[in-house]
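Possible race condition, two jobs.
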Amino acid sequence: MDAQTWNERYDTPELIWSGSPNQFLPQQVEGLEVGTVLDLACGEGRNAVWLGTQGWEITGVDFSEVGIAKAKKLAADNDITGTWVTADATTWSPPLDGFDLVLVFYLQLPATERRAAVKTAISSLAIDGTFVLVAHDLLNLTQGFGGPQDANVLVTSEGIIADITAAEIDLDVELVIERAERIDRAVSTPDGDRNAIDTLVRVHRVA
């Protein structure tokens, strides 16, 4: 989906998703020293804004200018000041000093574009920084609920690790894999709770 498609999808009076953070985010940042954070492909900004309420200095990047506008409003509604950039996650050039935390949540792209976005994320990491990726897992297509119904944009932890390893070599950085696994996510529906299957990968950059 291109930027115009997402502009049209985000062009609603209300948020498409809630203003609350993704359910996996709080536990993934627990214990991290508060610093700078990049939310790459931030959409309407809910994860970045929540981190702003926790004291993080936030930057959100998304290729949808409508999404960025809604993120700015959500930040203002929560008395949060952030940096918001309209740019493509696959081609954006991050600042040289990097970020203490980089997030990529549910950026579902074909393999070539996904590898480019992962490389952008890794290149955005400061030394001692943490990268967290959450995405719809390939297994969700047949055994889970919701999410894209196109195998070409679904992921596996093995595929994400391969992307990260390629970025590590290209960028000449050293990374430690802290988590790489499938995780279940409860989804409330009118017919009761359903189970979605996601991939979660967490990486730490060392000196």
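Job #2 (started ~2 s after job #1):
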Amino acid sequence: MLVIADNLSVRNRNYLEAVRKKNKKALADMAKELASHGADMLNVQVSQDGVGDEDSLPLATEAVQSAVDLPLCLDSRNVKALRKAVPLCHEPPIINYLSADEKNPDDFFALVRDTKSNLVIRAVKGTVPTTLEAKLMIIEDLIEKANAADIPNERLFADPSVVHIGKGMGQDHLLNAHEAIVVLNGMVDPPINTAVWISNVTTGLPKNIKSTVAACYLSYLAGAGLQAAMINVQDPEIMKAVYLIKAFRDEITFAPADIA
């Protein structure tokens, strides 16, 4: 399983403050800290809507990549910002994300194709669909468009989209996200990757249960065949779940002392 640290996001006030102040040392220190916790990749997000990313995203990308040799996931819908940031990466990053709402999808596809980057395609159209069928229809359409733009399935990550468990139909969303991963692993040929931002599940929950809910949902999706997860790598309970998932998949050698 690919472990993508979601810690460098708009949810992290200290990180956003470092970005605002252009404090590259602080950004570098944060990146090193996340790498030490076992991240395979770092997600870099500097805004919720892409406004101002032209300046902030390249700055954060350069600071983070200068500190660690891990691959990056660039979280922005601002193509101009991405064109500046991608060349600063040591290897082709994951672009996170493209949904059915994007007004200029061809610009995204061209960027991904030309830079040999990877792309998250997310099941969103206005809102997060409430049914398995609707999610699969959006993802299938985006796969077809990506393939038509010469982006192979091996460089695509399908995100069925999850919402927090306490919101309205939250439990239904979590269930059909699991089912979507199962279906995608069996119906798409050549195979496609799958990815989920696990922290979305726990939004609004009491702090004392967030770790348990996130770790359990991660394990639930791992059983469906999830390939990549965006998680808080500084959460010991979640990282224990990651360790066990990798051990059960024979990706690492299990040792009791590692999780003691």
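The chain has two domains: 1-76, 92-250.
Logs attached separately.
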